[in-house]
Amino acid sequence: MDEIRAIVAQVRNAHVRALLDAFLDDPEIGPAFDIAPAAKSIHHAHRGGLREHTLSVLRLAEKVCDHYPQLDRDLVLAGALLHDIGKTRELTAAGEDYTDEGKLVGHLVLTCQLIREKAARIADFPRELEWRITHLVVAHHGRREYGSPKEPVTLEAMAVHALDDLDTRMSSFGQLFAAAPAGARWTDSKNIYGRQLLRGK
After folding, report:
1. From the CB of residue 66, how many other CB atoms can be counted at a distance below 10 Å?
2. Does pLDDT of 81 surpass 90?
3. Contact (Cβ atoms closer than 8 angstroms) between residue 143 and residue 165
4. Could you tell me if 19 and 133 are in contact, meaning their C-beta atoms sit under 8 angstroms apart?
5. What digits encode the pLDDT tens for the residues 97-110?
6. Is the pLDDT of residue 89 over 90?
7. For residue 96, what are the domain limits?
8. What is the DSSP string of 57-82?
9. d(CA 10, CA 171)
């Protein structure tokens, strides 16, 4: 968590920083964030997986913002931190199932509700800034058929989606490689990608 806080400390916009600190300092979200899995099975599906995934996306976000100066760094970092944070309430701590709240509402809506609640407690929080941060969350799956009610319409939302997708796929490939028989170069084709994957040496 120390490295996550150090990255968040780079945020210059006072309202964005206050919002991110409100999440990290939340007495329920903070401890849950440390132990929650990022998913039931597809990626980072283990204790602490959500923190691991979020830190990875934050690290990637730093590098991408250095490469593309036209990006609003504060917004990309906000999206990297918040995009999956509703999973602290969507999944049980052990990650073996969804909570009732997770089944009925889901992490995208839960996160948006939390953004609205916390932004409302920050003095003079700009409404458009809240909308833009919320868009980073609702668009991070990239396509409607993948669960996003809105597709990315800002540079920052496209960046957050791409980084989340990259880290998710790297983890899921790794899990499939680990599950392959010892010595096998190829995975089974019965996986979420519907094709065999080459593990190589």
Report:
1. 10
2. yes
3. no
4. yes
5. 788 888 898 889 99
6. no
7. 2-164
8. HHHHHHHHHHH-TTS-HHHHHHHHHH
9. 27
Give tens-digit pLDDT for 136-169: 999 998 677 676 888 999 999 999 999 999 999 9
Q: Is residue 38 part of a domain?
A: yes
Burial class from Cβ neighbours inside 10 Å (0-12, 13-18, 19+) for residue 38 reads buried
Number of domains in the chain: 1
The answer to whether residue 157 sits within a structural domain is yes
Q: What is the pLDDT confidence band of residue 95, given thresholds at 50, 70 and 90? A: low
Residue 106 placed within a domain = yes
